[in-house]
Amino acid sequence: GPVGAAVVGIGALTAATAGFGIKAVQASGNFQKGMNMVYTMLPNASQQTKDKLSKDVLDLSEKYGQSANNISNSMYQALSAGVKANDVKGFLDVAQQATIASGLDDTSVAVDGITSVVNAFGEKNISAKKASDLMFTAVRKGKTTFPEMASSIAQVSPVASSLGVQFSDLTAVVATMTAKGTPTSETMTQMKAAFSEFSKGSSKASKEFKAATGKSFKDFIAQGGNLQTAMQALDQHAQKSGKNINEFFGSVEAGAFALSVTGKNAKDFAENMK
Questions:
Q1: pTM for the full model?
Q2: Are 163 and 199 in contact (CB under 8 A)?
Q3: Cα 142 from Cα 5, distance rounded (Å)
């Protein structure tokens, strides 16, 4: 009937104006303003690079049905956080998918969370996609959400990275501890407290770790250990000394972390590490 004809008409019209639409967007003052903000991050960029970024924004805008302005804002944020111009389109693709998967409206949460992981661990060690995948694995295995992890991961990533602990070990902890009911931000606080003690050679935890393994925590990790085998070694040492592992830590938070990944929780932690 006539409705069918109208639909066909609109389809043809959309196809005809699609080419014009992109040009119109490109010419619009608003789009230029957004792109000019992006370019302030790249003072030495060639015209060719600028054109490519401009096209990247329009491609992503079309792919995800997001306004070009939203995308250029995300691009600005990603570049500010240290993502390279060559990598920014791929990065925003990952951030956009993470945003959709977690039911968010705004990409800035994903951009912030993923860049803080990649910056802390180094892009040679972890890609944006891998960081995002690991966070979603923790969401699947634990009781946490992508936004909760994204907004609190920065408290623990730098100290973990300085000790050589992998990001996947952190997400395994988040899965293990949140599944048992510890809130995400509290999990990060407790983990950070334990890592802080391991990074000070004079702390009780460091001394007991050396007594347990003959090595510092950092050396143990560097020589092929991981967070799970490290905590296991410390727990066995505690049992031999007739103590609970939390007694080896100076703060209640650090002790709570140690209890959460050893003893009756060791099996779940080992599973999540896999």
A1: 0.87
A2: yes
A3: 51
